[in-house]
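Kindly review these tokens for lecture notes.

. . .
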Amino acid sequence: MAGRLCVALKTRQGHATTAQAVARGRSGQVGSRVMNVGKRVGGALYVHREALDLIGDEAEAVATAARLLPDLPWNVAKISRDGVSLLVYEDFDEAAFPALLKSARVDPATGAISIIDYEGRDSPPILHRKETLLRPDDPRIPQFRTLTAEAEARGLFRNSNSIGTKRKWEERLREANLKIVGQRIVDADDKPVKIARHRTAIARHGLSQPMQIMLGLGMIRKDFSVFDYGCGQGDDVALLQANGYQAFGWDPHHAPEGPRREADVVNLGFVINVIENPTERVETIRAAWSFARRALMVAVMPTGKYQGSGLKPYKDGFLSSRGTFQRYYSQEELRELTGSVTGEAPVSLAPGIVAIFRDKELEQEVTYRRRSRATVLSETFQVVSRTRPPRVDRPSYRSLPVRDRIAPQMEAIWKMALEFGRLPDVSEVSPDIIEALAVARVSFDRAVALCIAEFDPATLREAAEARRDDLLVHFALMQFPGAPRYATLPSSIKRDVRTFFGSLRAAMEEARQVLFSAGNQETVREAIQQALDQGLGGMSTGGFRFLASALSRMPRIIRVVVGCAEVIEADIYSYDLLEISMDNAVVTGIRCDDFSRAMPLITDCTIVDLKALRRKVLRLKGQVLYLKGRYLPVDDPTREGQLKVDEKLLRAGIVSEDGKGPDAASLMRILRARASTA
């Protein structure tokens, strides 16, 4: 019996992962299986007994252990390198956060059984996120997921490693002035305050940041419909409509008569952060998600720059003097909340902004564009007059040379060619362009031929090389363990594969070599030197440091290394600075309170160890980021002024050449003392 248990666990225990091979710079073949059920904590897998048939080989080990304990009323199995534990939780369905009553561990080597009884203890372990243990089709998941999302919305799962026992969990509830009633989380002493939510809506003269990001990443297209859920005064909708996009909006105060119907893409921009009721936040996300055919964008106010400034604490947020509510979110909180509600893994796009996708091909396209040097920038969006252009006299129009008649369309086609690194297919071109060509009585093929004759082919060759590099990065990261797996590729990427590689097999093989080369530190050092030569960042004591927003401009190997780190730390794009070690496989994300300041405070760092496949988060207090100008790209408009500040600090002896200096409090004392003697 013990032998069978040992065999059942052998697969999980006996192999190094591909990721570890990558970190060491070696290639190899590894057989692995992606788990689609259960919750992993500290290397162990927790799964409900009704979902055992979905976990593969490990189910045999659980079944063997269960036969040794036929009378144990267990409901959850824990599978780890040390063996199998059968866990008895109190009423799994009725208890919102069940306490552990009994644990029975079976040693895989000897078959020995050790039982721990928790029923008589004051503070037994507590189970959170019950839905993650169940089968994907379990009817209990929606109810359990709602409970989890509400806990996320109320901030109860922050520092989740400190709420694992009943005592600690109850302390967290008391600190938040909350209590559990059935399957709900409610305020312990709710004192209603009238919130003026409508006052948070502001007038805009350009697209909001979420809309700009979606436009730049190809989530907003002429053939996609866009629903702005909670559109405020409707400026985003008006600007999109003026530019020929299918956009509409609804707002409970400013546009209550607006349509509430399905759209390809739904924007929930800066809505849930002004809702004081956590349950309503969950319901709002769920409602917006129900309207999204392809994707949902959620934007909130991130923690940092404005948090708590001149505001009065109220529930899990703040009240302003105008009677408005504001809840600030860390990136992790936002991802956990939206993921809990939708049941999908959110993709971080910027601080305080995530996207959730139903359309996995669109998710691939967005992920690819986010990593690419050829990303379409939001600056291409132009506000146009809402009035119709003057009618062109047909005879004079027809008398124009063909190039003059279709000049705007040729420029648009060529721009797409430079983005793709190849000539676009007719199916990839905006219907507006095709319609304009038809009016001009010019075929698409002729327009393409004119582009080839008119524009510089060398520019297209450079774009093709960049696109090929981008594809290799994308395909390399698809092979990293833990990265999302997709059933099919988007049609545009399929065309890229045929153009640049001939076949998917050839592309994946070359990408595999790129992935493993990212584990070679000499190769990484060469890429870092290339980035330094291009003026894309600078050196710190820890390694090569650069703006996270400049990642897409980096050499291929640097993008692959950071992409591997993203699999372990999903919020890597939400940091202000990234740092790559010169000597080991470590990527560090650095987040500041307000990066626009000359000397911002570092709030936290996340260190991702690619060899060990783990991350460590450091919360910092009072640490100043000095010599910021070194890490800015040479073309950054703020760099020159920042370097002047840095030079003053160096000349004054406040900061050393390696960027070390006093903490924030000491710095303020030094500056005040110098000001008083000046």
